Give the backbone structure.
Amino acid sequence: MAELADILTIIGFLITILTFLKVINNSKEIKELNKKNFFINRLPENLHDLKKSSSKLSVLISQTDNNKKEILIEISGLSPILKSIKRSLKKEDLEHYNLLKEEVDKHKKTYISIDDVAWIRKLTKNFNLLEEAYIDKTYRYLSTLITDIENMNKDYKKDLLK
């Protein structure tokens, strides 16, 4: 009788391990489905917002010196859009997202003129001035991300194994 109890204990233990592994696998599948859901439902809106920002930046860049404040505001506005987009993209699709995110995050310590910089930032040199190179790089990465997302969307629509 003790042998039967030992065998049933081992079988119960194996069932517990298999159940645990299945739960882990299901969690991964749920995360993947969640990403697909965001990709299908949220990404088109985010793409529209990115294109709108890109168009606005394109117009503002034509007269950079007169539009520095508006350019910085527009770049700052990309941050929440990017936060939402990240939920829709897989790890292997984040290359261009990361490039743009890195540039956009610089807006937190970017100033239009040296006069706007707090003395402590000047002392520690922990600031950036809004320069044409930064604007061009941000705009270029934004355009690349838009193209990347559009291509992913086309690929997804053609994917037979959705």
Remarks:
- Residues 42-158 form a domain with the Four Helix Bundle (Hemerythrin (Met), subunit A) fold (CATH 1.20.120).
- DSSP finds six helices and two strands in the chain.
